[in-house]
Structure formats: structure tokens, C-alpha cells
Amino acid sequence: DGGITQSPKYLFRKEGQNVTLSCEQNLNHDAMYWYRQDPGQGLRLIYYSQIVNDFQKGDIAEGYSVSREKKESFPLTVTSAQKNPTAFYLCASSYILRGGLDEQYFGPGTRLTVT
Amino acid sequence: AQSVTQLGSHVSVSEGALVLLRCNYSSSVPPYLFWYVQYPNQGLQLLLKYTSAATLVKGINGFEAEFKKSETSFHLTKPSAHMSDAAEYFCAVSDPDYGQNFVFGPGTRLSVLP
Predict the structure, then answer these.
(1) Residue B84, SS3?
(2) Contact between chains at A101 and B51 (C-beta distance less than 8 A)
(3) Nearest chain A CA: its distance from B98 CA (Å)
(4) Cα separation of B21 and B90, whole Å?
(5) Which of B43, B104, B105 minimises the CB distance to A107?
(6) Residues 6+ apart with CB under 8 A from A95
(7) Each residue of B4-40: pLDDT tens digit?
């Protein structure tokens, strides 16, 4: 089955530690995205990538880093510099069309809790 | 910059009643438009999308939306609400003039009362 997977579902870390969230897709999508969602709020874009070895900052990139070494994979590292890392993190992917982006497919999300 | 507004952060309807969730966008160029649904602690699932074909778009679970260029709107409707429709709904726009990114609305939480 084609899809997008995120692991783990729940993640707990101590303050000051870096943590990496996994995102893998087997849909052959060019573009991949990371969003952050806080309770009762919408989605905020952290980073996105349209091609291997290239990525762009989104609206809230500070304290986060990404890599795109393979088309299928787009891991997100939440660094100790992120002041409020506890949130629900969503990864998505999509085709890139001439007229815009096709629908984004979302993973199930990772809930990160930092204490 | 492109923006998406969803009127009403929380909408309550009775089971069997009409569901109407509003979405307006700011682009002057017809973009691609999407509605997503999110259940608690899950990712977003596509309900339907408009990509410049028919202006009335039918989606999954009995939902549909109508693209109205003159009103820059893409409201989501369902004739008869079911308890299982209770969720968060997001409208999104993909606008080539805004680069290769989506813009999501803030979301509307739908409650369905028995």
C-alpha cells in the first residue's frame, strides 16, 4: 500500500535534548513538508522540500532542522534551541503540478512532549 | 500574500441537519482549493478538491463544495449531518502565484448534537 508514515506516534524527551522525527513516503512524490499543530490551532509550516538535497524554511523554522538525502525520506530534528517544542507534528507530501500543488497526503502525526 | 479564512472556529449542528462550513480565499487568480478533515490525534484526510474543472465538487462521506469565483469562496456542505462527522475541518489553497506551498485556513471544529 502506498502512503506516508511517521514514527514514532508518541515521543517523550527531556528539555535540552535534540530529537529526530521520521517521515517516509512511497508515493513517489516530489515535495515533502513538515507542519506543527498546537491545540486548537491550525497548521504552521516548518520546512518544505521540492527536490532531493534542497529544502526551504517555512513560517516557523527557528529551532528545527531537516535533511532530504532521499526522495522518500524527510526527517525533522527538533533542536534544543526550539523554545516550545511540545506539539503535534505532521508530515505531508504531494506532487508538483504546473498550475500549483496537487493534494497533500498526510502522515498520522507524531506527538512530541518535552519536559 | 494568499490568505484563507474560515468563518466560525466552532460550528454545532443537530444530527440530520445541514452542515455548512465556510471558506474564503484572497487570491484573484483561481487557485486549487481543498477541504481536509482531521479526527483527534490523527493526520489530515482529503475530503475533496477543486482544480479548475467543475465548480461543484463532490467528495467523500457525502460532502460537497462549490467554487464561486465572484465571491472567492469554497464553502463545504453536507445535507444531513451524522455523528461521525464531528471533527476539525480545514480549507486549503494552492496558489501558483504564492510559490509551491499550501495555505491552510485556521480550521472549524464541527460538533454534531444528538
Answers:
(1) helix
(2) no
(3) 9
(4) 9
(5) B43
(6) A29, A30, A31, A101, A102
(7) 999 999 999 999 999 999 999 987 666 789 999 999 8
